[in-house]
Amino acid sequence: MPSPFDNLCQHVRETALLASTVETLGWDERTMLPQEAGAYRAEQMTYLAGLVHQKQTDPRLGEWLAELAASDRAADPHGDATATIRNLRREYDRQRKIPQRLVEELTRATVLGQQKWGTARKADRFADFAPQLETIMKLLREKADALGYTGARYDALLDEYEPHALSKEVAVVLENLRRELVPLVEAIAGSVKKPDLTILKRRFPAPAQETFGRAAAARIGFAFSRGRLDTTNHPFCTGLGPNDCRITTRYDEQFFPSAFFGILHEAGHGIYEQGLRGDWFGLPPGEAISLGIHESQSRMWENLVGRSQPFWQHFYPQAVAAFPQALADVPLDAFHFAVNNVRPSLIRVEADEATYNLHILIRFELEQALINDDLPIADLPAAWNEKYRAYLGIAPPSDALGVLQDIHWSAGLVGYFPTYSLGNLYAAQFFDQADEEIGPLADQFAAGEFAPLRNWLGEKIHRQGKCYTAAELIEQVTGKPLSHEPLIRRLRGTLGALYGVV
Amino acid sequence: MPSPFDNLCQHVRETALLASTVETLGWDERTMLPQEAGAYRAEQMTYLAGLVHQKQTDPRLGEWLAELAASDRAADPHGDATATIRNLRREYDRQRKIPQRLVEELTRATVLGQQKWGTARKADRFADFAPQLETIMKLLREKADALGYTGARYDALLDEYEPHALSKEVAVVLENLRRELVPLVEAIAGSVKKPDLTILKRRFPAPAQETFGRAAAARIGFAFSRGRLDTTNHPFCTGLGPNDCRITTRYDEQFFPSAFFGILHEAGHGIYEQGLRGDWFGLPPGEAISLGIHESQSRMWENLVGRSQPFWQHFYPQAVAAFPQALADVPLDAFHFAVNNVRPSLIRVEADEATYNLHILIRFELEQALINDDLPIADLPAAWNEKYRAYLGIAPPSDALGVLQDIHWSAGLVGYFPTYSLGNLYAAQFFDQADEEIGPLADQFAAGEFAPLRNWLGEKIHRQGKCYTAAELIEQVTGKPLSHEPLIRRLRGTLGALYGVV
Description:
The structure is a homodimer.
Chain A (H helix, E strand, L loop, with lengths): L3 H28 L6 H19 L2 H11 L10 H17 L3 H24 L6 H18 L6 H8 L5 H24 L15 H15 L6 E5 L5 E5 L2 E6 L6 H20 L15 H15 L3 H14 L1 H4 L4 H7 L17 H17 L7 H13 L25 H21 L2 H6 L4 H10 L9 H9 L6 H15 L3
């Protein structure tokens, strides 16, 4: 007779079969769907999301969990079985609070939301998207109220992406970062040393970008036998099965960094997904801890590896061969300086490492206002532009380059943005530790060797699944709680050296 | 309170949401899936197919159908409601006979079957595929026995693709065809007039083929805002929703007809799918009648339209512009003769109109032997080659060009092949009728006008959904039962003229 634990796992694995199917429909929706097929796809996803929610809230789960709570108290708290039970208990209690109707309405609203966002962005007309966004925010407030919270209503949503995090704590972290970053960005702005950005704005044919980006992703360790790279207008990474991780990017033939660093970023997410234990797929030991930890992996490969001088020591000759017309006359150092350009800009996904967190701060503040204080949707573009002027000193000339640039809110992803900044912090702290334990990493990168770092991340982070919380893991791996110092130290070091400041 | 009919339709629409999701997973599996992701995809599809079958056999369906059987006896037998009830009754009774376990086993076996077929075909090793094919045939025999039959066991499977058809009747039709075709093919073989085939074997770059094929598909009426064209090693067409029909092809840069006529063929299927009434999606009035009728649409656009002289009067200047190196020195008539080449060949999907049905006859006989008489799988390649020698006078030099060429058996599609020949017969008979009612079609094609034929097909066939059986429809539309004469007449006429025979 199967034990309660076996029953529990079997049930959750079945739920994962359905949930990963919804993910597949979502991937297809964003990469492949014919123009007029959106409405029916929304119905499919809505119906399946309802089935997923039914399975997630099946009362038998509650019974099995209750039986299991009585036993195993002495077990290793970070063992697979204990972590499975602890996480599923938390998830079950959470899901039981959300009515099935709300799950279905949110799915429908956000599938249509993404479609409407896509066309509104193309047409550069926020008004085309506003009514749908209004619906989504109303449903999200309803969801937060159903989930409950002690501090801010927003925390109920944040918890879905960064379990156990509180917005007031995140606000402190971002404020610490901002305080240190502003003088650094100012010093850089005042420096006489400037990279020549025109070299990145020459012509880089999209097919060559794809070939080069694909080769780099494979080299750092993204396995294409277990994944894909496609083109979308908003890059993303999604895991559709234990051996099926799909990343996307967009190509700008007049700007090299856009697709390339996007690919490294998504490949970083993908390497985490591919490093999870497949035999636990759909169960906590085979799942990512939090989006903050997920983002630490993408930002590490994009920035700490991909923008480093040794990385380009290895890859630059290949880049010159791939783009001879653009790069034949450009020395390595000029190229490396250009991809580390620091300058306030409009688009988050193309922002430099130093100003990036200010983009996040803007979104974090606005989405709290939308959820906690009912900021009217009609006022959102003005509020967005106002904050860009205040924090970055620039004003978006259009909504497409402003409030419409990100897909997140259209997909109902509120509470998601701050995890990007947490990711930057985690990344720097993990990277320092890896360098200490298995470094110098720089020498390895220069030799084109990325397996040592990837294996270290695999062992210390990926294979741990959800057996630790994010806070426990950073302490477990680095011996210290999360701090903003490693990130600031690194930015001062690398950018300071390039710009001759600090 | 919803009526039993409303309940019935709502339930079946929900089933269609799930079934179309399985179709989407299947499309993705064949076009996009990373190499190592097959096993998990099989699990997803198996689980969902089980859910579909659960819904198809829900006892409430039986109750609603019983309530409905008592009423409406006087209604129009071809009305939407009556046809819905009649078809759902038939389908429900059929599904109730198949155990859930068998549905799941067949799904798993055929998803893996297609994967194993793909690799075996690439490696040209039948033995790599044989054990999986063995499993599939065993399960299909089991399925046929569960469904029951009065004549041959094979008929239970045939009925799924061509409802109400019997293999002994199909055998007669194919025999009639064969008797007329063999002397025609012999006369053609003896003719001194021969097309110059080398012009089709020049270099036709794949990207230009795709652009040209896409434009032709759009011109004849395949709507890309409601569909896609992708690349696979076995061309197919699948409807994933009322506005989401996807076709595929494969490109051979050394042989023009392969992709182009494949695209026309699949676009023909797609035009049928796109012509079904979307508000009835998933219900009989919004479904295709049978695979024979489906194939009549693809074969009509591929052959009766696409290989006609007037079609090329319109398209040939565009073809010359698309492939200047290959075609600049080729006159229209030489090209047209070449794409109407008649010659026994190895590959069914590339066979000419005259020999095509002999390819079908071979498969039809072999699959009956596999299902009715337990022909051992190990003997299949030899039996295949033997029949090619006997009927077409040629011997496949390898399994890849022989028994491994078609995906069907790997996907569990037994009883499917004869519908191809039925499609050829229906196509010729419908085409004659259309020419009589709205012709001369030839003049329209020469002027690039395909909307009249498409609209006629839409009104007479596509919009009728499943309100008629195939036998009823051909009688309703053409005033006569199905006959092989229109097809033979056409082949004698067009091919006879080209070759100067008959």
